[in-house]
Amino acid sequence: MVKKLFLITFILFMVSVNYAFGHTGLESSSPQAGEVIEAETNEIKMTFETKIEQGSTFELSNANGNAISIENINLSNNQMIGSLSNNLANGDYKVNWKIIGADGHPIEGEFSFTVNAPTVVDPTEKNEDGSQKNAEEDKEDLESINEEEAQTEQEQTKTKTNWIPSLIGVLIIAVIGSFLWIMRKGK
User: Fold this and answer.
1) Which of 35, 37, 57, 129 has the smallest set of CB atoms within 10 Å of its CB?
2) Residue 75 burial by Cβ neighbours in a 10 Å radius (0-12, 13-18, 19+)
3) Helix (H, G, I), strand (E, B), or coil: what is residue 41?
């Protein structure tokens, strides 16, 4: 009897864990996490692993934490596209998204990117020491920093989305263990 009960419980556990890991996540975005955009942009596009429901949204903010107005957000199957009224100025930006997955569960995440569109440079502009500024050196330093930030952000996002299924698994194991303990104690 205990073996059958254990087998049934194990099967239910495996089904539950697979369901818990089935939540959708961000598959790709344009701009991508950590990307340095070298062209003007006025659109944010995100593609998720499964269909997303109405009520899904996102916010965009600059490096100072100031919100950037999003003119329109369109949802279509597994995509969310936000249109901006103006092109983004050069600088760092952060996207905080909140979606409702096809299974009805709310999921959230974030990513950052940088806009570094070409601008007209004053040829007479100089560094503090009087030497000519080197835009290529500045650009390389910025790209290196942004790549490191993107890697850290991706690791943080993965950690945020992976703890929920793990917690559910631990809770299920605790319930099964308690149930089996009670069954043995009752004999």
Assistant:
1) 129
2) middle
3) coil
Question: What residue has token string 């369901």?
Answer: 19
What residue type is assigned to position 94 of the chain?
K
List Cα–Cα distances, 86 to 27, 53, 65, 82, in angstroms.
Answer: 26, 27, 18, 12
Torsions phi, psi for 38 (to 5 deg): -110, 25
Closest to 16 (Cα-Cα) out of 180, 186, 185, 172? 172
- Within 8 A by CB and 6+ apart from 98, the residues are 56, 57, 58, 106, 107, 108
DSSP 32: P
pLDDT per position as a tens digit, 119-158: 765 555 555 665 555 555 555 555 666 666 656 665 655 5
- pTM, entire model: 0.55
